[in-house]
């Protein structure tokens, strides 16, 4: 697993470097000798190009011939299991505005570490053959027109660390197995998922999770505490969530952003949030919280923005009032405060 992780990071750096070099001298790259893996890549990429119905920027105008390492957006590197064999290690066609779909032949790209196609108009579903991409480190298909159920082939990719499927039309349940993956970042926001967070939610060692603008229901399970060593950002705004925030939230002392606004949470804010010493942005607006805003939260040393408007809070300490422009307390039930 560690070698796959290192391979992914190396490919990410390689793509960055090649992008710079290519902008200086587009012909700098000497083409590697053809081998069976590059021939398979040629088959896969030509099958993919056949699905394209629109390429308004002519991004793939040089996608012809067997020298796939010269294709725009295709990045080759030595194979992790044989440094003398070149293979397709990365695909980055972000913002190309291409319309098309993903064919099963893409599963032939078994050395692929990065697959970035965000901000295009790809549609359909994720091919089952993606389960063969065992070295895939980053999968970004955000801002497209994919639909159907959750793309379950990604659950079979052991090296996956970064998964971004936001701003598509996926719907239905999110499988519990997703939260057993060793992801560092997960973005599934702005789809049409309908699910509740399972008890194994805390199994994922992620630093960032964004679930906003789905139909989640339910509450945040207490297992969230298991993420305390890794999690930095939690964003679950406008997700239809209910119930109370668990006291275990306070143990997430590495979290800098916690946003559960525009939900249906009730009860009091846990005083334990005052132990989240790294917290910079806290947004609990547009819920049904009540009681007194804990003073310990307003005394957090790094707190820059605390929004708790549009709730039913009945009181706040002087420490909260002194936050001034760094807090928003309007539309509550707090005596002597403006805009209640």
TrEMBL record:
GO terms of biological process kind: cell wall organization
Domain of life the protein comes from: Eukaryota
Locations listed in the record: Secreted, Cell wall
Leucine-rich repeat-containing N-terminal plant-type domain mapped to chain residues: 43-76
Keyword Nuclease in record: no
Record's keyword terms, sorted: Cell wall, Cell wall biogenesis/degradation, Glycoprotein, Hydroxylation, Leucine-rich repeat, Membrane, Repeat, Secreted, Signal, Transmembrane, Transmembrane helix
Pfam family, one: LRRNT_2
Subcellular location, principal: secreted
Membrane spanning stretches: 6-24
Coiled-coil boundaries: none
InterPro entries per record: Leu-rich_rpt (IPR001611), LRR_dom_sf (IPR032675), LRR_extensin-like_regulator (IPR051582), LRR_N_plant-typ (IPR013210)
Designated name of the protein: Cell wall hydroxyproline-rich glycoprotein
Organism encoding this protein: Trifolium pratense
